[in-house]
């Protein structure tokens, strides 16, 4: 009776051992996949996702250890692999927390440069507009889409949540002015003023939201320069503006 009971339970234990080992290996693979996706999506990973990601290697280790106890000799290799990979991932978690900011930093720096280049392109369009309108700057940034050789893509910072205004023509893309929260990353503070490139100090023409970049924001001045200001200086600059900050 005992022998038959033992024999009948062995297949169940073998099966459960195989399942546990498979789950452990899947945990290892899922952890690597989530790290890759987190790395290519955005440097600012929501905290609510960090805890589940970090919990995966311990789960893989637990399933691997349980699998080693229940798996048949032929299946223990899979269980050992799950344990070894999970243990390695646990060792890599502290290293990853150090390396991830360093890996994401070059991308953010590239976005800052691209954002500043967008502002300089906007200034060229403003300058051309002013030459045609007695030195006056446009009433809105959206007006540049219908009067100058510029596209709506220039109004979007690559680090922001805004998107390019749709449309095949400047007139169609002028929807920018109808929904600036969605289609424009920049805050325009020089509507209708005269463009004075010789003004000292140069006047702020537009800037971006502090939320676009981690440590500051880009600012466009009346002499055509775009400068990245650290957060503390950026806040002082915003507070010192005499004109109300308005989007286009």
Write out key terms for the chains shown.
248 residues; alpha+beta; 2 domains; 4-stranded antiparallel beta sheet; 7 helices; 4 strands; disordered N terminus; disordered C terminus
Protein described:
There is one protein chain. By secondary structure, this protein is α+β, with helices and mostly antiparallel strands. It has 2 domains: 2-103, no CATH class; 107-240. The chain has 7 helices and 4 strands, in the order ααααααββββα. The protein has helices at residues 2-41, 47-70, 76-132, 143-147, 170-173, 180-183, 231-240; strands at 186-188, 204-208, 216-221, 226-230. It has a 4-stranded antiparallel β-sheet. It is elongated and about 90 Å long.
Rg estimate, integer Å: 29 Å
Taken from the alpha-carbon principal axes, the silhouette is elongated
Number of distinct beta strands:
4
Alpha-beta classification? alpha+beta
- The number of helical elements comes to 7
Q: Give the averaged pLDDT, no decimals.
A: 77
Largest sheet: 4 strands, antiparallel
Helix content: 55-70%
Structural domain count: 2
Please report the distance between the alpha carbons of the first and last residues. 85 Å
Instruction: Estimate the strand proportion.
Output: 5-15%
Biggest sheet: strand arrangement: 1-2-3-4
Oligomeric composition of the shown chains: single chain
């Amino acid at each position: 009776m005992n022998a038959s009971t033992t024999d009948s339970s062995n297949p169940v234990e073998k099966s459960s051992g195989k399942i546990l080992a498979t789950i452990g290996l899947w945990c290892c693979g899922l952890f690597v996949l989530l790290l890759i996706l987190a790395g290519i999506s955005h440097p600012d990973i929501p905290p609510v996702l960090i805890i589940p990601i970090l919990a995966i290697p311990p789960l893989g280790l637990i399933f691997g250890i349980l699998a080693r106890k229940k798996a048949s000799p032929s299946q223990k290799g899979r269980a050992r692999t799950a344990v070894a990979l999970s243990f390695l991932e646990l060792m890599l978690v502290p290293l990853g927390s150090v390396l991830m900011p360093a890996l994401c930093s070059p991308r953010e720096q590239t976005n800052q440069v691209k954002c500043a280049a967008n502002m300089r392109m906007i200034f060229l369009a403003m300058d051309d507009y002013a030459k045609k309108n007695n030195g006056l700057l446009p009433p809105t940034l959206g007006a540049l889409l219908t009067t100058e050789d510029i596209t709506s893509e220039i109004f979007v910072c690559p680090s922001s949540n805004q998107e390019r205004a749709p449309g095949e023509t400047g007139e169609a893309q002028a929807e920018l002015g109808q929904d600036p929260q969605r289609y424009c990353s920049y805050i325009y503070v020089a509507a209708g003023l005269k463009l004075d490139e010789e003004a000292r100090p140069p006047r702020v023409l537009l800037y971006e939201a502090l939320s676009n970049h981690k440590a500051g924001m880009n600012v466009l001045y009346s002499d055509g320069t775009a400068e990245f200001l650290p957060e503390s200086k950026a806040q002082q600059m915003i507070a010192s503006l005499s004109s109300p900050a308005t989007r286009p």
